[in-house]
Amino acid sequence: MSAIQQTDLNFKLSTRIVFDPEEILKHLQLGISIPILPELHKYIFEDIKSYNAKAIILEKDISEENFYDHTDKAVGISLIYDDKDETLFFGYFGVYDHDGNKIEFLLDRIIEYAQDHKYKNIRGPINIPTLIYGWGFMVEGSTKDLFIGCPTNPPIYQEIFLNKGFYVKFKEHRYHVPALKMNPHDLPGYDFTDYEYINPGKEGIWDVIEEMMSLHINFQPPSAQITPKKSLNLKVFIDFIFSFGKEWMLWVVYQKSTNKMIASGYVIPNIFHKDKKGRMDSISFHDWVVHPNHQRKGLAMLMYGETSLRGINKKTENFIRWGSWPVGSENIANKKAAEKMGGIKNKSHLILEYEI
Question: Domain span at residue 52?
Answer without folding.
Answer: 3-160
